[in-house]
Amino acid sequence: MHTCQIGLLSDFDDLCKKNGIGYFVFEGTLLGAVRHRDFIPWDDDMDVVLFREDYDKLLSLPDDEYPDHMRLHRPAEDGAFLDFIPRIVDVRHEADSYPLSRHPFIDIFVLDGSYGGKRQKLRVTAQRFVYALAMGHRDGRLMPDYAISSRNAVIRGMSVPIQWIGKLMPLEKKIEWYTSLSKRCKKRDALYVSNIVPFSLHREYDASWFSDTVTLEIRGLTVPAPKGYDDILRISYGDYTKLPPAESRKPVHFKDLGVSGQKE
Predict the structure, then answer these.
(1) Which of 72, 166, 197, 244 could hold 133 in an S-S bridge, CB 3.0 to 4.6 Å?
(2) Partners of 106 in beta bridges
(3) CA geometry: angle at 229 spanning 224 and 234, to 5°?
(4) pLDDT of 23-64, one tens digit each?
(5) How many percent of the chain have pLDDT more than 90?
(6) Distances (CA, A) of 210 to 1, 186, 206
(7) DSSP 41-93
(8) How far apart (Å, rounded) are the C-alpha atoms in residues 133 and 167?
(9) CA-to-CA distance for 134 and 76, rounded, in angstroms?
(10) Burial readout 114-151 (b: 16 or more C-beta within 10 A, e: otherwise)
């Protein structure tokens, strides 16, 4: 799996350079680059994050800009909702998988401006509500613990009814609402990842952490990372220099890290 992934990440890097698109490695991929100078040994996907303008540029690329083996999977593709995260997939390879993808993939996250304070909390609440509506299209399954993050049991209990309502509404409309909410703040003093899973929407980042790029290595490949990577990783992982318990060191998306074959 990791051999396939490093090839996909290298091809994605080439695509971005060719089209003037900036990106940073992010989340588990950033952690692997910092802590292991490689992938996290048990990790099974890749994460990058882009500023909104670079993200829009990536989404607007014509299909013929991509190598034949690489394609962009959009959130509403095939009429099913996984989440609001597009993915770059390598269609040459297949593996047993949880519903995200049958192929090795890169999650594409987007950085937008954060209002901060109560106004940002209201926006995040609205996004979580739209997310819950969209979850009604998730392969026919209702997931009460995934759509609305709240300590309030009554609010959490509303998740399934909201998803039932969402099943009756066009998925494309919910994607339009969610994108509109994400792009609304034009300030750049603070940032947040607007299309991440709902229980992480509250995270805010100092814009200066993304104001410049440093280079790190993953398996010999030089990759761009935000200069404030230490602060960013501590928000997600706390003391990220320590390994998690042994029982947590396992793949999340795929059943194992093997690849069952390569398509011609």
Answers:
(1) 166
(2) 46, 88
(3) 150
(4) 999 999 999 999 999 999 999 889 999 999 999 999 999 999
(5) 62
(6) 29, 16, 8
(7) TT---EEEEEEHHHHHHHHTS-GGGS-TTEEEEPTTGGG----S--EEEETTE
(8) 7
(9) 10
(10) bbeeeebeebbeebbbbbbbbbbbbeeebebebbbbee
